[in-house]
């Protein structure tokens, strides 16, 4: 008899649960519309204004260095064209500060070459100032013969090392 009662209770419970079941809606809701995802417009990833890469791209590698004759620090016609190109850049980007590095070849004493490198850097700086670039934006440093770009004890190497190189700081 217990099994009959238990079976009856289970059947009535199942019927009661079935009666509580939700009916399916007669009409289904519309599918959600796809909203377009805003994709950011990619900006050209170029070098930052004032960076050395930006300066090189704007004036060209060859126009960042002026070369000098042995024991000289004067600006010749070729040098003035390079410095005019630099001045155009620095006029356009007035927040850029920069350094002019003076260098010498390996001949001569350390002290002599440091002084010569300083005269070369100042010569380039003074030319840029004469073109309207504020002196406050230009720093000079002399490395003398301490940072050669060409190793060797011949005229070709010496000619490459007698230079004033412009390097941006920003």
Secondary-structure blueprint of this entry?
Layout: H1 2-20, H2 52-59, E1 65-67, H3 77-92, E2 98-103, H4 110-130, E3 138-144, H5 155-161, E4 163-168
Parallel strand pairs: 2-3
Antiparallel strand pairs: 1-4, 2-4
Q: Spans of 5+ residues with little confidence (pLDDT < 50)?
A: none
The overall pLDDT, averaged over residues, is 88
Global morphology: rod-shaped
Structural class: alpha+beta
Summarize the main sheet: 4 strands, mixed
CATH superfamily of the domain at 52-168: OmpA-like domain
Determine and state the CATH class of the domain at 52-168. Answer: Alpha Beta
Helix content: 40-55%
Give the C-alpha Rg: 39 Å
Name of the CATH architecture of the domain at 52-168: 2-Layer Sandwich
Give structural notes.
The structure is a single chain. The chain has 170 residues and is α+β, with helices and mostly antiparallel strands. The protein has a domain of 117 residues: OmpA-like domain (60s Ribosomal Protein L30, Chain: A). The protein is built from five helices and four strands. The protein has a four-stranded mixed β-sheet with strand order 1-4-2-3.
